[in-house]
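Weekly sync notes, structure subgroup
Attendees: PM, AL, DS (notes)

Item 1: joint prediction request from the bench team. They want all two components modeled as one assembly rather than separately. Inputs as received:
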Amino acid sequence: MDPIIANDLMTYGKTVKKDRKTQWFQYVKPYLFLLPAIAIIIFWVYKPLLQTLQYSLYKWSMVPGTQPEYVGLANFTKLFKNKDFIPALKNTVIYIAGMLPFSVVLPLFIAAATHDLAGKAKNLYRALIFVPMIMPPVAVAIIFQWLLHPSNGLVNHLLLTWGITSDNIAFFANEAFAKTMIILISGWKMIGFSTLMFSSALSNIDFQYYEAAKLDGAGSIRRFFDMTLVLLSPTVMLMLMISVLFAGQWSFAYIDLLTTGGPFGSSTNIFYLMYKFAFNDLNVGLCAATATLFFIVFGIIALLMQFLSKKFAFYDN
Amino acid sequence: MIKKRVFTGLKHLLLMLLSFIAVFPIYWMIISSLKGDPEIFNYLPFSKDLKFENYQYAFQAMPIGKMLVNSFVNSAVQTVFQLIVAVLAAYGLVRWDFPGKTILYSLFTLTWLVPFQAIMIPNYVQINEWGLNGTVTAIILPYMASSFACISMYQAFASFPKALIDAGRMDGSGELQVLKNIVLPSMGASVASLGIILFINSWNDYMWPMLITKKLEQAPIQIGLKSFVGADVNMWGSMMAATTVSCLPILIIYLVLQRNIVDSFMKWGIK
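Output from the run, pasted for the record:
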């Protein structure tokens, strides 16, 4: 063969190969960029989630060298017979309801009330009210343990000096107070964040609406209910959803650090119960069954709220 | 007019009260840590005689220095990994339209329906299998990527003009070069403020580090402190000193970058 043609053919072959390679590479490139994120999240979130669903059908104590034993739905029947389950369930609902004033109601009013304050004052208040949000939960728990200490705490000292109570109160060891205190502490940490969310949503609202309403002679209370609330409804729905889904988890650290679920299970909730099933009782199956149940229930709640939000929230485009 | 003034006055009163409630517990922590032994039970909102003996004692009684280093390593490594992974993912999502994009994106968003308690056992078993239980590495591994970081970064990148990326490609630069030389420089502020949020999040993380930590020497400071909660001894001064130290980095970051942090939280919400 003519050497020149042969040479041409060779380079031609090479370019075709190279083109194919680049084409193939072009096609894969986007996936390569997403690969680290997706791989890590699948490995540490979705794979374990499937494993948990599987564990809910097995009996296992996490002891190395032992094999999980298939028991079918026995874990679920055991769960409903467990004496701690129903009270924890009730408490979970109370925790969710108890958080709503701090995550939705109060922040909404504060955001509306401060909306037209001058810039400097607004920023100062925002900065201060927001501080609890970034505090480490362990530090928060220790601070409140000190403030509410039965014999040496500031709160008991003030209550006694002002004559409000005649005895020291052990807030975290008292059935009447434990849960309320956990809610108040979780709420203290939450209120700043929600207020910010509502304030930022408010500042995105077109002022013309307000001017028009003022011209129509609507008072500030009317304006709040007829306009602010309507225009903020997407944010209200979002905060409602976040609050319902996460209230139980926000209080986890405080339950663990301050009451360990007691006294007599009065401050425990479903998330803390799961932790106890797994790491106190070493009952993987029971914990996994609870997790499965709640994953389904909360999934349904989230879908429902998403649906409601689409249906009722007012979007201003 | 008078009615309006009264209204504004009431508003300020309400806000001052709320600000006080928000800040006072933190102030009480700091001031208690600075009171000497006899003073700590006098309940005065200030100290007549500032003392640092509580700090001295806390550092002697607990390996605070070591725990601080653990926390720094843990939070810094987590933040860097999460940022790198998120920047790559965000670039991939913004730069191309490709089959399966929506599905991959929803993998990020759906993670927030998965409570930690639903995945803790398999992850714990996994770490045990690798023989990593009790190490800082074990605390970091599951948090090398954060779906919150990916979503936030994607939203920040979405505003970047695509024409500039195409122009960069015309010059013959590779994708990573375009990302590094064209996209990142103008996204610096977004990356930095996301980084701060991620650092605070991992510094404050509680449950996973608690499950993993076995010894004080290997504990992040938050978890190290936990072992002193409930030990009902009257060393509140040094307890408050240790607690103050445990949130000092966060408080300093907040003091310096307060506007920035508030704005980024407003933009991005929580994990």
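Discussion: The two ends of chain B are 44 Å apart (CA to CA).
Action: AL to compare against the crosslinking data before next sync.
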